Structure formats: structure tokens, C-alpha cells
Amino acid sequence: MTYKAMYKYELARAAGVSTDTFRRWLISDRDAFEAMGIAPQQHLLPPVAVRYICEKYVIEIP
């Protein structure tokens, strides 16, 4: 599957959770995102981060 850049709110919607809950999920992965060069306040996530999140939290993107 090819992943594209997505906003955090789009991933939260795909996961079926609120944006607040989704942000809490991401806090636990802060080190992984920093290693990818992604800042905590970044709203648009690059494909590598989208792939990581989808695989970790089993989110299916249409």
C-alpha cells in the first residue's frame, strides 16, 4: 500500500477516535516521531509517519 501525507484529524477520523484521544496516542510515540524529524505541533504528517501510525494502531486508510 502507498501512503500519502495526511492531517492528524484525518487519521483520527479513520481510527474512529477524537482528535484529543489521537493526540494522546501520539504523545507515547514522541521519540519515534522525533527520530523521523517530525515536530509535535506538526499538523500534516508525512507518508512515513502515516505508515508508522497505521501499522501500529491498525488503522485502515481507504
Account of the protein in words:
The structure is a single chain. This protein is mainly alpha-helical and 62 residues long. It has one domain (6-57). It is built from four helices and two strands. It has a two-stranded antiparallel ribbon with strand order 1-2. Helix 1 crosses helix 2. It starts with 5 loop residues before the first strand and ends in a 5-residue tail after the last helix.
Mean pLDDT: 94
- H/E series, N to C? EHHHEH
SS class: mainly alpha
Strand content: 5-15%
Strand sequence of the main sheet, in spatial order? Answer: 1-2
Tally of structural domains: 1
Percent helix, as a range, is: 40-55%
Envelope shape: globular
- Distance from N terminus to C terminus (CA atoms, Å) equals 10 Å
Taking the sheet with the most strands, its summary is: 2 strands, antiparallel
State the total count of DSSP E strands. 2
Radius of gyration: 10 Å
Unreliable stretches (pLDDT < 50, length at least 5) are none
Number of helices: 4
